[in-house]
Prior knowledge:
- By secondary structure, this protein is an alpha+beta fold.
- The protein has helices at 32-42, 75-91, 142-148, 180-185, 190-196, 238-250; strands at 2-10, 19-24, 47-51, 60-65, 70-71, 102-107, 110-119, 122-129, 135-139, 164-167, 172-176, 205-214, 217-226, 231-234, 257-264, 272-281, 284-303, 312-314.
- The chain has 2 domains: 2-129 and 295-314, Diaminopimelate Epimerase, Chain A, domain 1; 135-291, Roll (Diaminopimelate Epimerase, Chain A, domain 1).
- A hairpin with a 2-residue loop joins strand 16 (272-281) and strand 17 (284-303).
- The longest helix is centred in the first third of the chain and has 17 residues, at 75-91.
Amino acid sequence: MIRRYLTTDVFTDRMFGGNQLAVVLDAEGLSTAQMQSIAHEFNYSETTFVLPPREPRHTAQVRIFTPRAEMPFAGHPNVGTAFLWAREHERELRVGESALDQLVFEELAGLVPMSLWRDKGEVVGAELRAPEPLSCRSTITAEQAAACLSLSTQDIALGVHPPRVLSVGLPFLVVEIASREALARAKPNLTAFDRVFPLDHSDAVFAYWRGGSDGSVRLLQARMFCPGDGVVEDPATGSATAATVAFLASLQRGPDERLWRISQGVEMGRPSTLQARSVGGDGTVSAVYVGGRCVPVMRGTFELKGADCAPTASA
């Protein structure tokens, strides 16, 4: 069977920036092992597979794979899949049919509502709502976090929170860094990672530096490392961003909605911009959203020659 795939750069408005994503549109009938092999073949930080929904009122079932494992939820795969699915759907609309602006994906972590972003009627991006409430889990010492990031203990900021595992669907060890310069120096230390992880189902570090604000928009600069899962560094990490934003919002008093802009991927040469908003107030967060623009990159097909064969790709 010939199956279609598309790729996109997510959280960017220009090709070859942001985070790469491959989306297999015709995934029905593929086994889990085949999906994992295909994700390994693409070798992006994630590949998604679109299947018919279990509930007809939902848009699709979406399965997400890194090169090594299936994920219950992730940020840029949802944003990129919504973007590409919507563009393909609108290419195939018949006369009189209406385009959609709201999608719902079924995933292992639960239902993920998506809102499409448009510019002059064209889909240019999407925003997700995290599928789970904020979960605050284990903490580690500054010394342990510094070792994981090849930094000194003084480079770890502790004034707001210790390094701790946070999740809104996928757990990350979240570490605040004391300076932009220290964040730029960070790199994963595999020996230290092996000593710390796995930790509360997390195997990744999301390191961030608070860069002040732009009017009412709070600014963060971030990097994410997950060497144990074959992703040494990720250019843009929506699920970790959502967890971090939800956590920081929960520590503050004030307005019902806060806006955030997160820069990531700069050190990799794949600059990414994530836009987030947290809803709640007075120490509670009822919802957190992460979105961004996307750019289509490639389109192709592949064919599985047999149930147990590795996939052969063609552009």
